[in-house]
Design goal:
This protein has 111 residues and is α+β, with helices and mostly antiparallel strands. It has 3 helices and 4 strands, in the order H-E-H-H-E-E-E.
Length: 111
């Protein structure tokens, strides 16, 4: 695959996880879990429709990290790529057969 094709594939897989929750794992930090359930639901809904990617927050075009605010609370999310055993980095983030994607949602202050 060319670099452009690889980036396109990674972006597609990342968008799938972020928008639908499928194709990996979605985890929340203690700061998110400590919020009331209605606010947690608003944050997850905002995450699913997030599309404000720019060269500043998405320099590699992979849609793997960004920030947004909900009710004045700054939220950061990021996607990491692990091997299937979650022990090491994935050998190829464009290949879902060897990659477990983990999307972490956190308060920006927790990063």
């Amino acid at each position: 695959m060319s670099k452009t094709e690889t980036t396109d594939k990674i972006r597609h897989l990342n968008d799938q996880l972020r928008c639908t929750g499928s194709g990996g794992r979605v985890v929340a930090t203690q700061g998110i879990v400590a919020l009331d359930s209605a606010l947690q639901a608003k944050i997850l809904a905002a995450l699913k429709v997030f599309n404000a990617f720019t060269p500043d927050n998405d320099p590699h075009g992979e849609h793997d990290c960004a920030t947004f605010a909900v009710d004045g609370i700054k939220v950061l999310w990021k996607i990491d790529y692990y091997d299937l055993d979650l022990l090491r980095h994935s050998p190829d983030p464009a290949d879902p057969e060897v990659t477990t994607r983990v999307l972490t949602v956190m308060l920006a202050e927790e990063y």
